[in-house]
Amino acid sequence: PGVNHMDITIYGKGMYDLPGYSLDLFTYPQHYYGDLEYVLIPHGIIVDRTECLAKDIMQDIGDNNIVVLCVLKGGYKFCADLVEHIETFSRNSERSISMKVDFVRLKSYHNDQSTQDMQIIGGEDLSKLTGKSVLIVEDIVGTGRTMKALLNNIEKYKPKMIKVARDLLVKTTSQPDGYRPDCKCL
After folding, report:
1. Mode of pairing for the β-strands spanning 183-184 and 133-141
2. Could you give the angle at the alpha carbon of 180 between the alpha carbons of 179 and 182, nearest 5°?
3. What is the pLDDT of residues 43-64, one digit of tens each?
4. What residues contact residue 129 under an 8 Å CB cut-off, 6+ apart?
5. Strand ranges (DSSP E) for the chain?
6. Which residues partner with 104 through β-bridges?
7. C-alpha separations of 21 from 36, 40, 47, 100, 116 in Å
8. Phi, psi for residue 87 in degrees, rounded to 5
9. Helices 43-61 and 76-91 meet at what angle, rounded to 10?
10. pLDDT value, residue 83
């Protein structure tokens, strides 16, 4: 109730079935020599996809100011790049979107095993999300249990809208719960 979950899909089918690119096409640190077979997704494609995702988010959020909730630690770089692209689009468009960025850590693993309990560490008082448009930025979605728990927790504060953007991976697990992010880079 009161929360709008929309899909923004910007990757094609079979994206993860790509054979990869020859290492001869790239420069990479010498300490990786012998450990890599190919490059699956070049950096330029990631930058382009992040920019496209920012554009889609700008169109989707309309004139709403947003609170970006970055899930640390993995989501930090992707979040910084995504926010930078959104700010660039905002500066160069007819409307200006105000963004506030906050950070949380989610703990739901113990000894590499996903648990039922989730702790939210850090972040300001989540009650400040009441009536706001919230964009959660995450790097990897595993079982989806942690993200669902975070969404349930945030929904208690009745935000105007919640979107979830993730970077590259939806981790394949033996116990997926069917959760998929709203916005995907790849």
Report:
1. unpaired
2. 130
3. 888 889 899 999 988 888 877 8
4. 67, 69, 154, 157, 159
5. 66-72, 99-110, 113-121, 133-141, 161-170, 183-184
6. 71
7. 11, 6, 17, 38, 39
8. -60, -40
9. 60
10. 94
CA distance to 7, 20, 27, 40, 151, per residue, from 31 (Å) = 40, 20, 12, 18, 40
Closest listed residue to residue 47, CA positions, set 82, 9, 12, 14? 82
Which residue ranges make up each domain of the chain? 15-184
What are the two backbone dihedrals, phi and then psi, of residue 182, each rounded to the nearest 5 degrees?
A: -70, -40
C-alpha distance from residue 68 to each of 11, 25, 34, 56, 101 (Å) = 22, 36, 39, 15, 5
In a 10 Å sphere around its CB, with 0-12 CB exposed, 13-18 middle and 19+ buried, how is residue 123 labelled? middle
- pLDDT tens digit sequence for 152-185: 889 999 999 898 887 654 444 444 555 555 544 4
Pick the CATH number of 15-184 from 3.40.50.2020, 3.40.47.10, 3.30.1330.30, 1.10.10.350: 3.40.50.2020
**Residue 19: pLDDT band with limits 50, 70, 90:** confident
Give the predicted TM-score (pTM) of the model: 0.74
CA distance 90 to 58: 8
